Amino acid sequence: MNADTANGALGRKLGSVITLSNSEIDCIEAMLKRERQVAAGRELVCDGEPYDQTYVIKEGWAIRFKTLSDGRRQILNFVLPGDFVGLFAPLFDVSDHSVAALTDLVVHPLDPGSTVEMFADCPRLAAAIAWSAGRDEAILSEQVVRVGRRSAYERTGHLFVELLHRLRLVGEAKQRSFELPLTQEILADTLGLSIVHVNRTLRRLRENGLLCIKGERVVIGDLEQLTSVAEFSPQYLTAHPLPRRTESLLATAAS
Amino acid sequence: MNADTANGALGRKLGSVITLSNSEIDCIEAMLKRERQVAAGRELVCDGEPYDQTYVIKEGWAIRFKTLSDGRRQILNFVLPGDFVGLFAPLFDVSDHSVAALTDLVVHPLDPGSTVEMFADCPRLAAAIAWSAGRDEAILSEQVVRVGRRSAYERTGHLFVELLHRLRLVGEAKQRSFELPLTQEILADTLGLSIVHVNRTLRRLRENGLLCIKGERVVIGDLEQLTSVAEFSPQYLTAHPLPRRTESLLATAAS
DNA sequence: CGCTAGGTTGAATACGCTCAAAGATCGTGG
DNA sequence: CCACGATCTTTGAGCGTATTCAACCTAGCG
Questions:
Q1: Which of A141, B6, B84, B170 measures 20 to 30 Å from B14, CA to CA?
Q2: What is the CA B168 to chain-centroid distance, rounded?
C-alpha cells in the first residue's frame, strides 16, 4: 500500500498533484474516517434548501443538477468516486442545485471543524483540494462548451471520452471501457438533448465503430478517432504536479 | 468612505458576505496595490499556454471563452469589475481557456506570495474569496442550464437579468438599466446561438416590452415579467452573510 | 467619401424535438 | 416458473426552432 492507492479514490487523485507525505496520508485518512450509505435515488443536497455538510464520494455515482418549474432538468456534472460534494457548503446557507445518488453510494461526511484545521495545518493538502475544485470548474466549463457549441454527435462522444479519463484517474476504468450506471434519460439531461435523439446518436456512434454500450458497460471501439471527432483534448482533466513556484510558496507558508 | 465602498468593486462584493474589519480593509488595499491597463481585445490568458498571474478587475469587461478548431467559440462567463481572473492559476501550469478584454481594462495583478500570506493571516477574507469562487461556479452552473435547457427567448432574457443583478452588486447598474459593451456576436457566443437568431430574439423581447437595447445601453422594460418568463431566481447570485457556524469556526482558527 | 464592423431582415434548410407505438429487460408476485 | 407491470430502449413520422446563406442597412472613422 503506497501513497497512490492508500485512501482510495481521493488519495489517488490528490496523490497525482502532490507527492503525499506520511503525515498528509494520515490527514486524509482522518478526514475520511466517517462513512455512510446512501441508497440510489436519494438526494444528498436539495436545491434551495439549507445545507452545510460536505461529503467525499467513496463508491458509486451521483449527479449535480437543476430542475426548471415545468420539469426540464439539466445535469451539471457527474460526481464520481474521489469527488467532493458541497465543498463550498460552509460558505452558503442554501444550495443552488440538487445532488442525487444514481447508484447506491458510500460517502464520507466531513467534519467542518477538522477541515478548517486541515487547511491550516496541511497547506499542500489544502492546495491539492483547491486544485480539485479548480478541476471541477474546468469540467463544468467544458460542459458549457459541449452543450453550447457542439453537435449532438460531437457532444455525446466528448462526454464519453471525458468519463473514460476521469474514471481512469481514480482507477475505475480499463483502457477502453468502464461501467456506466446511466439510463439514456440521464444522458439526455446531461447533454441537453431529448432521449430519442440520444438514442439515435448512440446508434450512429455504434454504427461507426466508435463506441458501444452493452447493458451497463461502455466499450470504446476507436478511442483515437472518437477523441478526434469529438475534438477532445484531455488537458483540462489530466493531473500534473503543482508548479514548482507554488510548492515553494507553500513550503514557506508551512514553516 | 466606509467598508462598503472602500476598495472598489471587490471590497463591495466581499463586504456583502463578511463585515470587513479595518485590518481586513487594509489587507484588501494591500492586495490591490498594483494596477495595470489592458487594451480592449487583448488576451489576458491564452488557452493552452502557461500562466501564473492572478488579477482582480477594477474597471471594464472581459470574457472567459474557449474556441474550437473550426472557429466556433463558446463564452463561459463575463468577467466584471470586482471579479477574479486566474484565481486558480498557481495550481495549474497551463490554462484550459482564454480570457480577453472586451473593453479597455484596469486590472490589479496580485502578488502570489502575499496572497498565500493573506490566506493564512486573514481567514475570514480567505473565506470571502472562497465564497466568491463558489459564486463563480454557481454562475457557470446557471450558464449550463441556460444553454442546455432553455429556449432562445428564455435564455436571452435570463442572461440580461443575471447581468443586472451582478452589476448592481458592484454598483455598476441602475435599477433597471446598465451599460452593455457587447456586440450581438458576443451575445451569440455566450448564449450558444447564431448571431441572426440573437437579433430576432432581441427584437421579440423588445416588441414584448421586456427589454430594449439602445446603442451601448440596456433598459429593462418590465423586470418582473422578464424575471418570470426567464424563470430567473436570484438566489445563486445574492450575497448573504456567512453562516454563523462558519464564522465561529473561522474565529477559532484565527486565534 | 468610402471602408469596415455591426445590425437587420428574408428565404431555404437542417438538426433535433415531439408524438406515437412497439420491443427489450428485469424484478416481483401469483 | 411464468405472467405481469414497470422501466428503459428503439424506431418511425411529422414538426418546429434555430441555422445558414444572402442581401441590404447603418454608424463610425480614417
A1: A141
A2: 12
Number of Cβ within 10 Å of residue B35's Cβ equals 11
How far is the C-alpha of A83 from the C-alpha of A10, rounded, in Å?
Answer: 7
A235/B131 CB distance under 8 A: no
B72-125 per-position pLDDT tens digit: 999 999 999 999 999 999 999 999 999 999 999 999 999 988 888 898 889 999
Give pLDDT tens digits for A106-144.
999 999 888 888 988 899 999 999 999 999 999 999 999
Q: How far apart are CA A182 and CA B253, in angstroms?
A: 42
Out of A91, A96, A192, the one facing B236 most closely (by C-beta) is A96
Provide the positions of strand D that have an atom within 7 A of a protein CB.
7-13, 17-22, 28
Q: Residue B215: which residues within 8 A CB-CB, separation 6 or more?
A: none
Select the residue of B68, B141, B245 nearest A96 (Cβ to Cβ).
Answer: B141
Cell 486573514, located at residue = B122
User: In the predicted model, what is the mean pLDDT of chain B?
Assistant: 95
- A73 CB-to-strand C distance under 7 Å: no
Whether A159 and chain B come into contact, CB under 8 Å, resolves to: no
**B34: pLDDT strictly greater than 90:** yes
Determine the Cα–Cα distance for residues A214 and A65; give it in Å rounded to an integer: 26
Residue pair A180/A159 in contact by the 8 Å Cβ criterion: no
- Is some CB atom of chain B closer than 8 A to the CB atom of A4? no
A143-168 pLDDT, tens digit per residue, is 999 999 999 999 999 999 999 999 99
A233: burial class by Cβ within 10 Å (0-12, 13-18, 19+)?
A: middle
Task: Determine the Cα–Cα distance for residues B69 and B162; give it in Å rounded to an integer.
Answer: 30
Number of neighbours of residue A49 by Cβ within 10 angstroms:
11
Q: Which of B68, B96, B127 sits opposite A236 (nearest CB)?
A: B96
CA distance A196 to chain B (A): 16
Looking at the predicted structure, is the pLDDT value of residue A76 above 70? Answer: yes
Q: What is the pTM of this model?
A: 0.96
Residue B253 with chain A: CB contacts under 8 Å: 116-117, 120
Burial A193-216 (b: 16+ CB within 10 A, else e): beeeebeebbeebeeeebbebeee
